[in-house]
Amino acid sequence: MFASRLITSSRYKTASVRLHQHTRPVLQRHPNPTLRTMSSSGANDAAAALEARNQHEASIKRNPHPDFKAVEASRPDWEESSTWHYTKTRSPDWQWGQGGNDGGESLAKKHVEIDPYEPGRPAVFNYKLMISAIVPRPIGFLSTMAADGTSSNLAPFSYTSMVCHDPPIFAIGITGGIATAKDTLANIASSKECVINIISEHFIEAANSTSVNAPYGVSEWGLSGLHQAPSSVIKPPRVQEAVFAAECKLYELKEFESKANPGKKSGTLVLLEGVKFWVREDAINEEKNQIDPAILRPISRLGGITYGRTTEVFEILRPDFSAVGKAPNAEELLEKASNP
Ligand SMILES: Cc1cc2nc3c(=O)[nH]c(=O)nc-3n(C[C@H](O)[C@H](O)[C@H](O)COP(=O)(O)O)c2cc1C
């Protein structure tokens, strides 16, 4: 029944397709010029790319629980009372030269050396390792549209960071190359536009739902129940529920070649320039230069299928070198520092 539901967008022109019919009509609209012009072989290529992505997804074995819902039910409820609050840092009396604050405990532990391409190690192991190590990651929630406006897309990407503020440049990593692009990448490559929304606690489930492996042309907007708000200088809409959104124009695309499968593109770096910012009125200060984190309530991505809230925080001053000279052991410290 679900498979034959008609998906339409309310305020914007989006794909209107029957899910059970997706393969042919959807692929004909694909914004990737290679896939669009190759008619039936293009359709086959795109279907093969989707199938390959589905197989890759299955190989990740993301869900660590045989019965996820049972495990979830056994856990405490979401703690609504847990809100943004400050604590001291772990060791407020830390002194220059002290090193760690664990009394040397971490120094007693051994490390394991891992060659990312050691024989028998699948590349997906590096994916799992890296997403559990490079944490927490902000989640860029990308709204894109096909260049001809026929199809809109929404999906989360945690390979997200800002890399420059003048101009405002954001970096997004998307698995796969342009020839076999995920819908988001295909749209960005063709339209050169996208909105980066930041995910907050109040729409995490809906945001996660948009990572569904929907075929091209099926709009995750309708599936998620999230709302579109008009952008100012680009076509793709913003997520109205988002506290922060940046309208962006494509700055540069850089594909990476796989080492595990030479000759194949395994990922694409998308550099985007922010050309307009949107911040919810109750979250921005008068100077329009700071967002209230207690209102943003950002969600971060950790390893596996784990997400994090940021509620317990602390502040530490940015150090000034003049403070080193005032330390009781300044001479010894500076001597050590001059012989690294
Ligand atoms: C929290 C989260 C973070 C994700 N981060 C990335 C990412 O950084 N890069 C990527 O290629 N896929 C990432 N994904 C998977 C994509 O969201 C997923 O493949 C999605 O179906 C892509 O949609 P599209 O084909 O409509 O572009 C992430 C999924 C989730 C749930």
Automatic annotation (TrEMBL):
<dbReference type="Pfam" id="PF01613">
    <property type="entry name" value="Flavin_Reduct"/>
</dbReference>
<dbReference type="InterPro" id="IPR012349">
    <property type="entry name" value="Split_barrel_FMN-bd"/>
</dbReference>
<feature type="region of interest" description="Disordered">
    <location>
        <begin position="29"/>
        <end position="84"/>
    </location>
</feature>
<comment type="similarity">
    <text>Belongs to the flavoredoxin family.</text>
</comment>
<dbReference type="InterPro" id="IPR002563">
    <property type="entry name" value="Flavin_Rdtase-like_dom"/>
</dbReference>
<feature type="domain" description="Flavin reductase like">
    <location>
        <begin position="132"/>
        <end position="290"/>
    </location>
</feature>
<keyword id="KW-0285">Flavoprotein</keyword>
<protein>
    <submittedName>
        <fullName>Flavoprotein oxygenase</fullName>
    </submittedName>
</protein>
<dbReference type="GO" id="GO:0010181">
    <property type="term" value="F:FMN binding"/>
</dbReference>
<feature type="compositionally biased region" description="Low complexity">
    <location>
        <begin position="43"/>
        <end position="52"/>
    </location>
</feature>
<keyword id="KW-0288">FMN</keyword>
<feature type="compositionally biased region" description="Basic and acidic residues">
    <location>
        <begin position="53"/>
        <end position="78"/>
    </location>
</feature>
